[in-house]
Design brief:
With 136 residues, this protein is of the alpha/beta class. Strands 2-1-3-4 form a four-stranded parallel sheet, with helices on both faces. The protein is globular and about 40 Å long. The protein starts with a strand and ends with a strand.
Length: 136
């Protein structure tokens, strides 16, 4: 079963960031045999990095052996609905910092895979504590 790659790790590859790209690349190579995918939300978040050129984004992801064709499922929607509610309750009680809904959607998507590869592990632990997380 595949690993979901968070936007942060994909951006490391795109930018060639000297601090993060080597570790992200090594991590993704170590998990390539399981399969690597991104969520539809991550594909949307990558838009600015490719100037909105979806063909260029798809070509880049294909060259990196990262799948971008996994569909959002009804179960993903239901889980995201519950997670966003729980997260907002904790935020109102000042238990967690404000996070964009995109991370909740990505976490819900990743739940049906092996887990997520991200540099934002703490954020995802706050959203979905049971999610398997690998940090590059």
């Amino acid at each position: 079963m595949a690993w979901v790659i968070d936007t942060s790790a994909v951006v490391d590859l795109i930018t060639g960031d000297p601090l993060f790209e080597p570790t992200s690349t090594a991590c993704l190579q170590n998990h390539l045999h399981d399969g690597l995918v991104i969520s539809p939300v991550t594909f949307v978040e990558l838009g600015p990095w490719f100037s909105g050129d979806d063909a260029a984004a798809e070509a880049f992801l294909k060259s990196a052996h990262i799948g971008a064709s996994e569909f959002w499922s009804p179960a993903d929607t239901l889980l995201a609905h519950r997670l966003w509610h729980q997260f907002q309750q904790r935020r109102r009680q000042m238990q967690v910092a404000k996070r964009p809904v995109a991370d909740v959607l990505i976490a819900a998507f990743a739940e049906r895979f092996q887990g997520i590869i991200t540099r934002n592990a703490a954020d995802f632990r706050n959203i979905l504590p049971t999610l398997r997380i690998i940090e590059p």
